[in-house]
Design goal:
By secondary structure, the protein is an all-alpha fold. The protein has one domain. Helix content is about 75%, strand content about 0%. It has helices spanning about 15-45, 50-80. The N and C termini lie far apart (about 40 Å).
Length: about 80
C-alpha cells in the first residue's frame, strides 16, 4: 500500500511490457556504444575494413531485434481485429 491508501502494482515477475521496451532501448544503446568504441579502436589501428564490418554486424543485430518487435506488433494487431 502506498501513503494514500491505494495499492501499488508490482512489476517484478509480472508482464511488464514497458520494462521490456526500456530494456531493449538500453540494449540498442549498449550495442551502439560498443560498436562505436570498437570502430574507433580498429580505425586507429589502421583496420578500417574490419571497423566497417563491426558496424554492419551491430546494425544487423539491432535490425533483427526491431524486426522481432514488429512481428509481435503485427500479431497483436491481428489478434485485436480477429484477422486470421
Amino acid at each position: 500500500m502506498n501513503n494514500w491508501g491505494g495499492t501499488v502494482a508490482s512489476t517484478k515477475g509480472g508482464d511488464s511490457r514497458m520494462g521490456n521496451n526500456i530494456d531493449l532501448i538500453f540494449k540498442i544503446a549498449g550495442v551502439g556504444i560498443l560498436v562505436a568504441v570498437l570502430n574507433s579502436i580498429l580505425k586507429a589501428a589502421g583496420k578500417e575494413e574490419q571497423g566497417h564490418l563491426v558496424t554492419l554486424a551491430g546494425l544487423a543485430i539491432v535490425f533483427i531485434w526491431v524486426i522481432q518487435l514488429l512481428a509481435n506488433l503485427f500479431d497483436q494487431v491481428k489478434s485485436v481485429f480477429k484477422l486470421f
